[in-house]
Amino acid sequence: MELLFNHAGDFGQGVLVTLGLVVYGFLGSIILGTILAALKTSPIRVARAVSSCYILVFRNIPLPVQMVLFVFGLPQLDIQFSLYSSAAIALVLYTAPFVAETIRSGLNTVDRGELEASMALGFAPMTSMRLLVLPQALATVVRPLGNVYITMVKNTSVAALVGVAELTFLTDKLAVDEASPFLIFAGSAICYLVLGLAVGRLGAALDRKVAFSR
Amino acid sequence: MNNHSLFDPAGPRTRRRHLILEIVTGAALAGLALLVLATLTKKGVFSADAWAPFAQPGLWKLLGQGLLHNIAAAAVGMVLSLAVGCLLAFGLVSTRTFLRRLSRVYTDVFSSIPLLLLLYFTSLVLPNYGLRLGDFWFLVIALTLYSGAVIGDLIRSGIVALPPGQSEAALALGFSQVGTLVRVLLPQALRSMSPALVSQLIILFKGTALAYVLGGYTELLRSATVIGQYFTQSLLQAQFVAAVGFLIVNVLLGVLADSLERRQRRLETQAPSPAGSDSLVLQTA
Questions:
Q1: Which structural domains are found in chain B, ordered by start?
Q2: Measuring CA to CA, which residue among A96, A103, A148 is closest to residue B284?
Q3: Nearest CA of chain B to the CA of A91: how many Å?
């Protein structure tokens, strides 16, 4: 136990870096995912094709491969970011397709009759979209999106592969140095459990909050 | 997934507008693609020099072997985690409180720990306890620890979704508790959960790329890196080929999962099963 307290500073630093990746990953993937979902439901065929291609490619190439390609491959083309931002960008690129598919499935749950009713009542298309479709679609999507982001919390660990000093990376370093790696891993596992639990709780709270519009 | 549109079919004027938009976006996209291609050519991505190493059959053999290693690890990991998952599912639906709680704690803990952390754990801690296995087994054990927990929960939800009449009838016919589980409930649960299990196999397969970090197991990403060390000018090309390899296998597995799910839904519509079986299977990373 004492060992863990001695390294509390290291763990804290690792958790902060991981949290940073989670926040950037969340913001980036929710924006990119929404754009992809909008493109995928658009009446313009080219837009649908672009979105489908993106989803197919970036969902099916494993995150470690994307990360390594981004960090070690792209500098050959003189495209170079800092380690941390490349990891964040790869995380966003990989998570966005899952977000897009989730949001799209939410749009599909809204009954078409409701839209017809709103048109019969004289709502303009955009107004009924804003007041009727989107609130319902987003409300059904909160819970599955929460699951996507719990997975993303775990996926931030892949950044350790390219040397970003986040929780998993620091854990590995400490475990190599210390005589009792078991405890170090236990501490790190607890950190991830708490992070995942926190994201899950946030999602559940948000879900309760939007439950009325479902 | 039902693909009904939220909007009425477009009229002639809207169709014309869409056509114009399609042409404009298509042209913009083609322009962008040309620009990217021109830049890549200028950087020498398509130069014969960079692709020259790919003329050697030995290089393709290395890459193919890498992919086979990925597939082997995923397959062995899947078999082991199915076994662990079945045992966990029995624990999760057990009537003994202690056993149930224990299984619940295991599934909750191991399904929320990153795979890479487990991989570091197996490769650093197991040798301390005298288990000097190869990197392959470290990877497979890490995959099993994680995936067993997820699959355990999947099978549990498959068992719980079955109508209670199934287990009641089996018990009335004189099956033991274990017999009911193994011979009546488990086969049905496995069948109804088969699309989700294939999705989990995709996740496992993606996870095998993490073995890159161990270095002692030449999976596809590692072999691409090795090629990049010998032929520095073709690192990007080798990584690209590796990415395409992963892409093809995953797309094939995805098609399998989709067709299984369609078959499942067809079976359900033929013989209506009780509500509660969630047809929306989303693949999460």
A1: 54-264 (1.10.3720.10)
A2: A148
A3: 11
> SS3 sequence, A10-56?
HHHHHHHHHHHHHHHHHHHHHHHHHHHHHHHCCCCHHHHHHHHHHHH
Q: Which residue of B has its CA nearest to A151?
A: B285
Q: Which helix (H) or strand (E) covers residue B58, if one does?
A: helix B57-92
Provide CB contacts within 8 A for B225, sequence distance 6+. Answer: A68, A72, B212, B235, B238, B239
Lookup: tokens for B22: 């399609």
Could you give the residue ranges of the DSSP H alpha helices within B111-193?
115-125, 135-160, 164-172, 177-179, 186-192
Ordered by where they begin, the domains of chain A are: 2-213 (1.10.3720.10)
The DSSP secondary-structure symbol of A129 reads I
- What would the pLDDT profile of A83-142 be if each residue is shown by its tens digit? 899 999 999 999 999 999 999 988 888 888 888 888 899 988 788 888 888 888 888 899
Give me the count of residues in chain B: 285
CB nearest to A47's CB, from B25, B206, B240: B25
B149, B88 Cβ separation under 8 angstroms: yes
Average pLDDT score over residue span B198-223: 90
